[in-house]
Design brief:
This protein is α/β, with parallel strands linked by helices. 39% of the residues lie in helices and 18% in strands. It is built from nine helices and nine strands.
Length: 287
Amino acid sequence: MRFLQADIPMNKHQFPRTHQQPVDGAKRAATYYRVSTGRQYANDASIPSQRKITSGFCEQNNYVIVDEFVEAATATDDRRPVLQEMIDRACASNRPYDAIVFYAFNRFFRNVAEMELTIRKLRKHGVEVVSVTQPTGDDPSQILVRQIIGAFDEHTSREISKNTIRAMRESAKQGFWNGATPPLGYKIVEAEHRGQKIKKKLAIDPVEAETVRLMYKLYLEGDGTTGPLGVKETTKWLNSHGYRTRRGSTFGVGPVHKILTNTCYASGDWPYGKRNSVTAVSMTCRM
C-alpha cells in the first residue's frame, strides 16, 4: 500500500490526496484532525502528530487515505464546518469513503448525544467510524464504553471551559488584558511574569492615540476652518489627509462612529465580559 506524503499547510481546511483505488482489500478512509487549544500544537495532540499517528494506524490496518480534513478553528459546540463537510461528503450517494479515522473521540465530537447520532448516520451509509487511540466495537458492551468515553470528554470540555472563563475574568479584574486585539490608540505591553506565563496590560500608543484625539476634535470642534463635523465628514477628512487604520486601510464610517460613541475612551475602563453587563469587569487605561 502506498501513501502520498506531503506537508500539510496549517492554514487550510481540507487537504485532498490523489484518489487511489483500494488494493488488496484496502478500505478507503478520510482522516480528520483538530486541536482544541494553542498549547496542543506543541505536544502530542498537535495536528502533525495526529496525522503521523493516524497515517501509521491506517497503514497497519489496511486503510488507504483518500482525503484529509483539518479543522483550522475550534468551537464549543459541534457545528465545526470542516467536520460537517466531511460528514456530508461521507454520506453522499457515490460513497467515497469506507471509514472515517481520527486520533481520539474528543477530536471528533464532545457531545455524546450528537456523537452517537452521527455514528449511526455514518454507519447507515456504510461508513465505519474509527478512533486510533480508543478502539471500540459494535457489541453492546463496547458501545457502552464508547458512550462513557464520550460522556467523560463532554464533561471535561465543559469543566475546562468553565475554569478558563473564571481564570480570564480574574485576570481582567487584576487589570490584565486577555489577548484580544487592542482598541485603536492602545497597544499591549508585558506587565509581569508569573512562572512561564507573561501577563499583559493595555498601554497608550502615542501615534494611534493622536489619531483618536483628532477624531474627537474634528467631531466636536472641527478643523479650525469649519464647525463641528459629523461622523461622515470626520471620516472623509481623515482619509483625505492621509490618515489610515492600523492595517493601512482608509477609515470607514462605521468604525469611526464606533470609536466616537465608545464611552471607554473617556473613562479608560475597558470591560471584559461585556455581553453580560451584570458580570462585566474592567481594565483601566485612560487615554
